[in-house]
Design a protein that fits this description.
By secondary structure, this protein is of the alpha/beta class. Helices cover 37% and strands 17% of the residues. It has a 7-stranded parallel beta sheet, with helices on both faces. The chain binds NADP nicotinamide-adenine-dinucleotide phosphate and ligand F7E.
Length: 338
């Protein structure tokens, strides 16, 4: 049987960590791309570095020649593009950069695939942020996109150009439309990681206060480990297609905080409204406040996915519930702190 060779752009991020694990277990040869950085970019994936089937190369999806050279050298059978400037809030501060990576970077990879003599399957990491301000109670593959940020808008370009290349050049190219997914490997400045990490530190007396933005947006949160299973399945179908991946359940940020606090046995009481809203602990100390610096110029108020297509065609469903997700994140944090 022909050896399966995966090339992962974005291998050093949360999903790169879980996807590498899954593909190595499936006996793939995995090649990942890291960017030059002043710190250690491979911190998350350190445990794979000694695996003989795992290889790391320097590259950047905004650098056309490095992408072409890597694809020609590695001869991947599958490319997973997880690389992105993935922070929605930051995309308002760096819109051109975000568009360059999240939109043009994807086109750069597609061009290299089109010009390659090899048959390469392609996965593009799309997002529920493409739905943006939506009127649909649940969003599926047919829901109109109405992105509310440079991040979401660039991802819509990536989605559409992936579909274009599939149809125009008969490339096996697929879009996942993934709703929020979290894990202990989540980046530090996403809200779930920030909440779990700060409340754990507050519980242990290592931090005084957690400062957040909008507490009332709703998100459909799954576990990254479940979601990379879906990503893999998307590339193993007879026909290339696009799929929504979600849990179908939504929670506000405040509800996420309340569940986390309860699991940490931190008793909190909410007081006040708007920017004056605070949470106090049982000794009366303020441990959570709200600041406008974490509000975005435009917000996506609610997202809830309908994954019926993935359930039917991929036989995929989200298994890890929010309680288990939060417990795993707490355990990881406490172990790190100890
Ligand atoms: P993440 O932890 O932020 O990882 C992003 C990865 O992209 C990192 O490895 C990063 O490298 C890399 N990267 C950034 N710019 C790059 C460039 N110019 N060239 C090459 N690599 C670059 O994100 P994630 O949570 O794993 O998400 C993976 C993908 O799914 C992203 O495309 C994201 O937009 C999308 N997505 C995520 C979610 C979610 O809830 N997590 C939901 C829907 C879609 P460094 O380590 O050097 O920064
Ligand atoms: O924000 C609110 C914030 O940054 C969630 C990315 O993986 O999922 C992620 O994007 C909500 C927003 O994730 C803070 O305003 C309040 O309403 O954790 P987040 P996101 O924006 O949903 C999608 C699907 C992706 O594709 C993205 O790549 O929480 N919020 N206070 C805050 N958010 C942050 N980051 N920090 C706060 O202090």
């Amino acid at each position: 049987m022909k050896k399966k060779i995966a090339l992962i752009f974005g291998v050093t991020g949360q999903d790169g960590y879980y996807l590498s694990d899954l593909l190595l277990k499936k006996k793939y040869v995995v090649h990942g791309i890291k960017r030059r950085s002043s710190s250690v970019p491979t911190r998350k994936i350190e445990k794979y570095l000694n695996n003989k089937n795992f290889h790391i190369h320097y590259g950047d999806i905004t650098d056309t020649s490095s992408i072409q050279n890597l694809i020609e050298k590695i001869k991947p059978t599958e490319i997973y593009n997880l690389a992105a400037q993935s922070h929605v809030g930051v995309s308002f501060f760096t819109p051109l950069y975000t568009a360059n990576v999240n939109a043009i970077g994807v086109l750069t990879i597609l061009e290299a695939i089109k010009n390659s003599k090899n048959n390469i399957k392609f996965y593009q990491a799309g997002t529920s942020e493409m739905f943006g301000k939506t009127l649909e109670k649940k969003q599926n593959e047919k829901t109109t996109f109405n992105p509310q940020s440079p991040y979401g808008t660039a991802k819509v370009f990536a989605h559409q150009i992936t579909k274009n290349y599939r149809e125009a050049y008969n490339i096996y190219a697929c879009n996942g439309i993934l709703f929020n997914h979290e894990s202990p490997m989540r980046g530090e400045n996403f809200v779930t990681k920030k909440i779990v990490s700060s409340l754990a530190k507050i519980k242990l007396g290592l931090q005084k206060k957690l400062v957040l933005g909008n507490l009332y947006s709703k998100r459909d949160w799954g576990h990254a480990k479940d979601y990379v299973d879906a990503i893999y399945k998307i590339l193993q179908q007879k026909k290339a297609d696009d799929y929504v991946i979600s849990t179908g359940k939504e929670y506000t940020i405040k509800e996420f905080i309340n569940i986390t606090a309860k699991k940490l046995k931190l008793q909190i009481k909410w007081k006040g409204k708007g920017l004056k809203e605070i949470a106090i602990d049982n000794s009366g100390k303020t441990i959570i406040t709200v600041s406008k610096i974490y509000f975005r110029p435009l917000e996506v108020d609610y997202l809830k996915g309908d994954s019926s297509k993935a359930r039917k065609k991929l036989k995929w469903k989200s298994k890890i519930k929010i309680d288990q997700l939060i417990e795993e994140m707490i355990d990881f944090e406490i172990k790190q702190l100890n």
